[in-house]
UniProtKB/TrEMBL annotation, chain A:
Its EC number is 7.1.1.9. The chain crosses the membrane at residues 54-75, 95-116, 137-157, 177-205, 217-245, 277-296, 303-322, 328-351, 372-394, 406-430, 442-463, 483-506. This is Cytochrome c oxidase subunit 1. The keyword rRNA processing does not apply. Pathway: Energy metabolism; oxidative phosphorylation. It catalyses: 4 Fe(II)-[cytochrome c] + O2 + 8 H(+)(in) = 4 Fe(III)-[cytochrome c] + 2 H2O + 4 H(+)(out). Its main location: membrane. InterPro entries: Cyt_c_oxase-like_su1_dom, Cyt_c_oxase-like_su1_sf, Cyt_C_Oxase_1, Cyt_c_Oxase_su1_BS, Cyt_c_oxase_su1_dom, Cyt_c_oxidase_su1_bac. Residues 42-546 form the Cytochrome oxidase subunit I profile domain. Keywords: Cell membrane, Copper, Electron transport, Heme, Iron, Membrane, Metal-binding, Respiratory chain, Translocase, Transmembrane, Transmembrane helix, Transport.
UniProtKB/TrEMBL annotation, chain B:
Residues 20-115 form the Cytochrome oxidase subunit II transmembrane region profile domain. Residues 116-253 form the Cytochrome oxidase subunit II copper A binding domain. Keywords: Copper, Electron transport, Heme, Iron, Membrane, Metal-binding, Respiratory chain, Translocase, Transmembrane, Transmembrane helix, Transport. This is Cytochrome c oxidase subunit 2. Subunits I and II form the functional core of the enzyme complex. Electrons originating in cytochrome c are transferred via heme a and Cu(A) to the binuclear center formed by heme a3 and Cu(B). Its EC number is 7.1.1.9. It is a multi-pass membrane protein. InterPro entries: CcO_II, CcO_II-like_C, Copper_CuA, Cupredoxin, Cyt_c-like_dom, Cyt_c-like_dom_sf, Cyt_c_oxidase_su2, Cyt_c_oxidase_su2_TM_dom. Belongs to the cytochrome c oxidase subunit 2 family. Signal peptide: none annotated. Pfam families: COX2, COX2_TM, Cytochrome_CBB3. Its cofactor is Cu cation. It comes from Onishia taeanensis. It is found in: Cell membrane; Membrane.
From TrEMBL, chain C:
InterPro entries: CtaG/Cox11_dom_sf, Cyt_c_oxidase_assmbl_CtaG. It is found in: Cell inner membrane. It is a single-pass type II membrane protein. This is Cytochrome c oxidase assembly protein CtaG. It comes from Onishia taeanensis. It comes from the Bacteria. Its main location: membrane. Keywords: Copper, Membrane, Signal-anchor, Transmembrane, Transmembrane helix. NCBIfam families: PRK05089.1. Exerts its effect at some terminal stage of cytochrome c oxidase synthesis, probably by being involved in the insertion of the copper B into subunit I. One of its GO terms (molecular function) is copper ion binding.
Amino acid sequence: MAPKLPPRLPPQHPLEQAGEAAGPAGHAEAGYHHGPKGLLRWLLTTNHKEIGTLYLIFSLSMFFIGGIFALVVRAELFQPGLQLVQPEFFNQMTTMHGLIMVFGAVMPGFVGLANWMIPLQIGAPDMALPRLNNFSFWLLPVAFTLLLSTLLMPGGGPNFGWTFYAPLSTTYSPPSTTFFILSLHMAGISSILGAINIIATILNLRAPGMRMMDMPLFVWTWLITAFLLIAVMPVLAGVITMMLLDINFGTSFFNAAGGGDPVMFQHIFWFFGHPEVYIMILPAFGIVSAIIPTFARKRLFGYASMVYATSSIAILSFLVWAHHMFAVGLPLVAELFFMYTTMLIAVPTGVKVFNWIATLFQGSISFETPMLFALAFVVLFSIGGFSGLMLAIAPADFQYHDTYFVVAHFHYVLVPGAVFAIMAAVYYWLPKWTGHYPNERLGRWHFWTSVVGVNLTFFPMHFSGLAGMPRRIPDYALQFADFNMASSIGALLFGTSQLLFVWMIIKCVRGGEKAPAKAWDGAEDLEWTVPSPAPLHTFETPPRFQHQEH
Amino acid sequence: MRKLPGGVAAIGGGVWLTFSALAHGWNMPLGVTALSRDIHGLHMTIFWICVVIGVVVFGVMFYSLFRYRRSKGAQASLFHENTKVEVIWTTVPLLILIGMALPATATLKQMYDAKDADLDVMVTGQQWRWHYEYLGEDVAFTSNLATPRDQIDGAAAKGENYLLEVDEPLVLPVGRKVRFLLTSDDVVHSWWVPDLAVKQDAIPGFVNENWVRIETPGTYRGQCTELCGRNHGFMPVVVEAMEPDAFDSWLAERQQAAAREASGVDREWAMDELMSRGQQVYESICASCHQVDGSGNPPVFPALANNPALMAERDRHIATVINGVAGKPMPAFSSSLSPVEIAAVITYERNAWGNDTGDSVQPSEIQARLE
Amino acid sequence: MTGVQRTVTRTLVVLLAMFVFAFALVPLYDAFCRVTGINGKVENTAQALIRDSIDESRVITVQFITRGSAGLPWKLEVLNRQVRVHPGAATEVHFAFTNHGKEAGWGRAVPSVSPSEASLYMRKVTCFCFQEQRLDAGERYEAPLVFQLTRDLPDDIQTVTLVYTLYPVDDKTLAAKALANEARIIAVPRIAVPGGEA
């Protein structure tokens, strides 16, 4: 069981103090950096904390680039008619927004958190494969520079949606598509290498005495996520390789003219794509499962059931892919099968939400910024879950499919879901990273403007979708005007409020209220046993983990 | 703490917004078929289930947040496990889901039952228009966006059915079972009319089926819902449902018109006749890509004005319009335009915008090429 | 570090297996489609007739639709647009290819069956759709389709629609197919080199 202590007891550590005998002095010594200085230091670093920082900075920059693309889309959709951009460019913006947010912002954000926190949470000195870690990070800037540069190429960048359905993305694609494929390959390899590293770290470098069922849930969810990555990123690599062959070498995987099948593209894509959706949400479950107990000062309710629920979600994610394809003309049996499996996913997901709420029940709750984001996650992610349940009903999905209802659904899951979880994690662990508490006042402002912005953006989309607005259109009929205007205003609010986030981070790095090793009084995991800020080298002598009786 | 009034206000606001929006028709339409009403019923059922679950779950959550605030001196309990509770909240949702799956399955089975149709319509998606063919009736036509460019660019006031209007709607009889066969000439499209609750992908090289039995005469509007390139947002679907008698006479009239059109092939057409017909065809079909002024949109859509290479090659010009270009948005118009229309539009293109080649292309020449 | 090495080796094996699996999905999907009838895919090689009694109690309408596509100045026509058949009976239908263009070329008719479940019960004994066709400029070529709907065709299928879309076959595709060692191309009579006579 996770080392959560009953609250309001004298501090009593699950660690044997002997393991940390060196104490703060030892850490100060270990914190000294040997090796190259300046830029070269960051280029060559193999330290999990530095690489974690690099990932997080990269993720944040991509979040802003993808956000600017989203704002271009929302600005064009502010009112009916074509005002700012032409449809070609609009399509590139929606596509790039999706690709950058999924592969550039959310996934690297979670990998950055994993790099920083997994070794600290399991008492390991570093990741298992530090040099590989460096390589997998530096692939990303290269991949995304290449991806962004396609916008400047003749014919423009990818314009076929982030799901790049063939043959729009093959026979009918712009010339830059080959570079798009190459950049996606690089991003994919980076994810795969990151996943291998995470699995190797978790399975081999846990502190002596820490069993699998003692690991914090963030570690658990990441372990399962890493397995998902290993399983599906090669499938993505396969499908884009087939595209490459179709475009450049005359094969006909997806070209009906040569005996291929465009629907097969969708099957293979979503065989990757659905687990990918869970790759973007499982670590978020782990983060929320760390934050809620901390600020409720109560052990997480149903730890074991959380692990089982996460595993069943991961397994089910391989059996639901065709619910993205209810309208492609699947036979009745397939429709029924995928409808049932999809509805089934609601069960373990519900269990998680119930567990979080049971953790809150009879706790001793305080509302620091990380907790605010975590609570908003629970509520707003659940709303995304509800619309997901509605989408699972295949007959009704014929009406919802490819409308703004779907856009509302997956943005509720991904923005106040995955993105809020990453923000919660940043607020939660910033004291450990910088040694200072984040500015609570700024945090609250950031939180409330984000919550209002997110809901103003995405809630009206449910209605524009139900009223009949298809997704990915640059212009729309007059009856959709009011809700689109609301969405655009919300998007601007949400976008600009992220500047508060950056300001808060900069302030926190530069100074602020000093944080002790155990920055939050209800926090119990291993990372809170090392000083704040965490020195460059930690747990060089493995701590002795004392597992807590049930 | 502040979380509570804020959160309650937010959720209250969301609930209020939801109900007022649904009450004002911002909801899935009830539609005009038995199936569309069934689907609407499923939608509302699952919606209310979600509302009830949401009220209970968030109710407990906000109660806990309010009741167990540390600022009010709440002391945390020690419990962290309860197998009985876990079993309950695993099985109860499972039972709710089974209850929901049963009616959904029944509706889905009906949606898949396309047998005994009275009329078959082949729907073909093209970048970026719909082509309809009444199978066995010798009636076929293309349905293009009718909204003028000025309205899209903001140079003119937008009409009531902005972006949801076409030059020729699909006309269907009420009360009869109509089977759709859907396919595409280029990329994947999706044909959707919310009031008919029909949404089906049109996939190149493959046929899909769907069906409808409309109950009320009227005009029903929808759009392409699968990203299909540049003009994806400008590819509306309009269905006009008529009483069976009116439909039969409409169909007969269309058949006569098709016969007249066919007989037009045999006679010699005057230049100005070709030009005026050609302009009409060009502006409804070609202008969406090649622009009204023939300037095109290179590199994907070549310019037709100031294109001496094309003007020098009359033969290639004709062949391109008839046969299209593989792998490009240029379709083979021999399947959707009559020889008269093809001849007229080529004549127009070769003489408009200062091209002035003086060439006229006769329908008989096109006809000869197709035999 | 042996623990780490072991983990890495194992994950690499899984990784490789999944990459291969992605490509294996192509034939698997094809096989799956043919077994379940997804997408109305039919066997693309000749099948033997099932010597079966004819079910005269049922009459199934079989519609044929032919479509052209961009880039090929050909026409594919069906000479009998609709036939009514008994399950179990073999039926012959005639199609005609015409090349209106001024060049010889290659084309292929790609079939699709609706409702897709019906493809499970559709046995094609002879079909022009099994291979690429080559037509000289102005050439007309009639080709038969011989098919049988098997007796186990479910009762709720009363109409079967077969759509043939005629696609151009370009040199790159021919080359890729030849590379993939698809001997069928070479087996088509009347040709030496693709596009050779043009």
